[in-house]
Design the sequence.
């Protein structure tokens, strides 16, 4: 742990991401230790009994908790301002656990329809099988949240900015409607990153991440995390997590700890690159629409300015000429890779209509603004001028 008295000023994110949550073994290692153990031993039968009763602190089994995983959880808690957290094997394990742990048959969920595809499957299909109804709405329209509320509504779920069109939803306003309805607001904060947006401070009850994205940020592993108050975790997630087993592997937790050390630097670089590329794309005749939350022409610009410290590391844009033109653009890129990941060190480009969102009906895609010419670009750590040269070359091929 950091040797520091509590009266001192709270540490800033870059410092917390290097030191936060660290516990050292007896060897006094500099880098965080990787505890690749599924279990723990006890000196006596009495000690085992006391630990199982919760009378003595300590680890029992890595499905419940593990020292390396706990370091990752505590570092994320420090960044997010959360009282407690549970690391998960993937972002989807985090989303599914965060929702499922607090509903039962007969309950109702309201979710913004612009969701990561697997999240939409969880709230629509998995929940329906368990007898939990879900209403999907346009999350930007506050009246729709209000009108969707039923006496049995337990959970509101949303992501902002959304994938892939970077719509921005007002977290504070939705939290107010949720709380008046007696529901919990769960926010998937992947696109904003924990650097740029703090859902808990804006009124959300639970934040979830795919740590696979910016938190690892180097394309190495899957991971996720659920963060909330201690009360919410104790009452909802604690037992569910222990007994259903979405636990994060200590190896991946260690990788993610290393990712957190450089997260503020990487996100700052990627955000600056995204803002630059968005502005330059907007000047190009081959591009008919640019979506970037901190640009003044973004439909949700005012809310984006209010709740996000910066405009995110992604930019979405329409290539005039539809699918064929968009494909010509993707195929002509030489540095930027075609891939559906995001937040990576490598710049990655996606054509959502034919990949991540191909399972939606054309009407559902139209509702979400996913045109056939839409391209989503996740900016990496390359020099932005090399990226721009690559983009300009590909635009010429369109
Ligand atoms: C990637 C992603 C997820 C799922 O995360 P995995 O780590 O791939 O399971 C959930 N929500 C959003 C917004 C994502 O981008």
Sequence:
């Amino acid at each position: 742990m950091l040797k520091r008295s509590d009266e001192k000023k709270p540490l800033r994110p870059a410092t917390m991401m290097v030191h936060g949550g660290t516990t050292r073994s007896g060897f006094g290692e500099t880098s965080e230790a990787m505890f690749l153990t599924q279990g723990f031993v006890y000196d006596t039968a009495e000690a085992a009994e006391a630990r199982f009763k919760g009378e003595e602190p300590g680890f029992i089994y890595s499905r419940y908790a593990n020292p390396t995983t706990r370091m990752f959880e505590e570092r994320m808690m420090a960044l997010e301002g959360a009282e407690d957290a549970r690391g998960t094997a993937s972002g989807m394990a985090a989303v599914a656990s965060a929702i499922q742990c607090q509903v039962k048959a007969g309950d109702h969920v309201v979710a913004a329809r612009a969701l990561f595809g697997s999240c939409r499957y969880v709230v629509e299909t998995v929940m329906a099988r368990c007898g939990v109804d879900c209403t999907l709405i346009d999350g930007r329209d506050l009246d729709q949240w209000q009108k969707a509320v039923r006496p049995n509504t337990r959970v509101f779920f949303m992501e902002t900015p959304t994938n892939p069109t970077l719509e921005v939803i007002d977290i504070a306003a939705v939290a107010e409607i949720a709380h008046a309805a007696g529901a919990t607001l769960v926010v998937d904060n992947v696109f904003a990153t924990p650097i740029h947006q703090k859902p808990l401070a804006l009124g959300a009850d639970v934040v979830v991440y795919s740590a696979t994205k910016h938190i690892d940020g180097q394309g190495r592993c899957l991971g996720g995390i659920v963060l909330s108050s201690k009360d919410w975790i104790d009452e909802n997630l604690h037992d569910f997590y222990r007994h259903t087993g979405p636990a994060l592997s200590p190896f991946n937790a260690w990788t993610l700890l290393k990712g957190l050390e450089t997260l503020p630097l990487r996100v700052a670089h990627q955000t600056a690159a995204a803002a630059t590329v968005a502005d330059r794309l907007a000047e190009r005749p081959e591009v008919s629409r640019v979506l970037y939350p901190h640009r003044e022409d973004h439909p949700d610009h005012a809310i984006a300015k209010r709740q996000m410290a910066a405009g995110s590391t992604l930019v979405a844009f329409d290539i005039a000429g539809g699918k064929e033109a968009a494909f010509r653009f993707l195929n002509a890129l030489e540095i930027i890779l075609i891939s559906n990941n995001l937040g990576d060190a490598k710049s990655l480009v996606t054509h959502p209509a034919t990949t991540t969102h191909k399972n939606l009906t054309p009407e559902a895609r139209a509702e979400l603004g996913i045109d056939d010419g839409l391209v989503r670009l996740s900016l990496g750590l390359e020099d932005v001028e090399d990226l721009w040269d690559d983009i300009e070359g590909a635009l010429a091929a369109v």
Observations:
- The CA atoms of residues 39 and 61 lie 5 Å apart.
